[in-house]
Design brief:
Structural class: alpha/beta
Strand content: 25-35%
Shape: globular
CATH topology: Rossmann fold
CATH class: Alpha Beta
Helix content: 25-40%
CATH superfamily: P-loop containing nucleotide triphosphate hydrolases
Strand order of the largest sheet: 2-3-1-4-5-6
Largest sheet: 6 strands, mixed
């Protein structure tokens, strides 16, 4: 049985842990070594959902530098869902999320999107109010604190996206 293929993109600034989240999900591994993604790297993972095979084509898109140097929007085209990644050690979390959500929406419109606030293992008590994001971007279906290092909520963010894509 061939099954479906779904394009999932991960967007966010440099060094927030996009590649690490993908490695944790696809290979169940983690490395502290930071290697910046140039362009895009595509990983695959086959999962079963409701007894049907689905192949996730996971696009690890290079990080944006700032509001001037943004990601190449051609990488966003054709996505079935997205994970916008930030981390608890980055500054301007809300502004960075808005920038990436605006880029996503300008290319693909409304598609299931999850916010992953990564590196929660560094401060398990970290809190942030995402009410403004939820009100401005109704296509954001959920947000999770994640840790690629410990695996916290990594499977859950991908599972939630698959559930939304298959509705």
């Amino acid at each position: 049985m061939v099954g479906k293929q779904k394009k999932v993109i991960l967007m966010g600034n440099f060094s927030v842990g996009k590649t690490s989240l993908i490695r944790r999900f696809v290979d169940n591994s983690f490395s502290d070594k930071y290697i910046s993604t140039i362009g895009v790297k595509i990983s695959k993972k086959r999962i079963d959902f409701n007894n049907q095979p689905i192949t996730l084509l996971i696009w690890d898109i290079e990080g944006a530098l700032d509001k001037i140097k943004r990601i190449n929007k051609t990488y966003i085209k054709g996505a079935n869902s997205a994970i916008i990644v930030t981390d608890i050690v980055s500054g301007n979390i809300i502004e960075n999320l808005k920038m990436h959500l605006d880029d996503l929406y300008s290319v693909n419109g409304f598609l299931p999107t999850i916010i992953a606030i990564n590196k929660i293992d560094k401060n398990p008590d970290f809190k942030i109010d995402l009410d403004e994001i939820k009100s401005l971007y109704p296509f954001v279906i959920d947000s999770f604190f994640t840790s690629a290092k410990s695996g916290i909520n990594v499977e859950k963010i991908f599972q939630k996206l698959v559930e939304e894509m298959e509705k």
